[in-house]
Design brief:
Oligomer: single chain
Number of strands: 0
Structural class: mainly alpha
Helix content: 55-70%
Strand content: under 5%
Shape: extended
Low-confidence stretches: none
Radius of gyration: 19 Å
Number of helices: 6
Largest sheet: none
């Protein structure tokens, strides 16, 4: 449709589009973010594109780890790169953790996405 086409014209599905979307999000939420960050966090995040999204992503993972530690829950960590490079091993470990048997069908092929250029090393 029209809105999607217009958006994709200025925000293509690549590093350039990602940075354009980040500029939009960073500008849109700049004033509200001051309520969430202390001075040290604000200084550290100010030059990171999509810093609010990056912060939320890190907080989600931090809170997930705190939750399982606090409640004594079992956890099984799967790393994105391992799922791509060692899929059979990762699936086997996950099924063992869940106490499940292997499905009759193999999972669909995993499509790894490269994010080179989305962030610069200094960011």
């Amino acid at each position: 449709g029209g809105r999607v086409s217009t958006f994709l014209a200025t925000h293509p599905k690549n590093a350039k589009g990602f940075r354009a979307w980040c500029r939009d999000m960073d500008a849109r939420h700049e004033e509200n973010e001051k309520w969430f960050y202390d001075a040290a966090a604000e200084k550290m995040l100010k030059d990171v594109p999509c810093h609010a999204e990056f912060f939320k992503w890190a907080q989600w993972h931090n809170n997930a780890f705190k939750s399982y530690e606090r409640h004594g829950l079992a956890v099984h960590v799967v790393h994105y790169a391992d799922y791509y490079s060692k899929m059979d091993e990762v699936v086997k470990g996950l099924l063992e953790f869940l106490g499940r048997n292997k499905a009759l069908r193999d999972p669909p092929p995993f499509k790894s996405v490269k994010f080179d250029g989305f962030y610069k090393k200094e960011e």
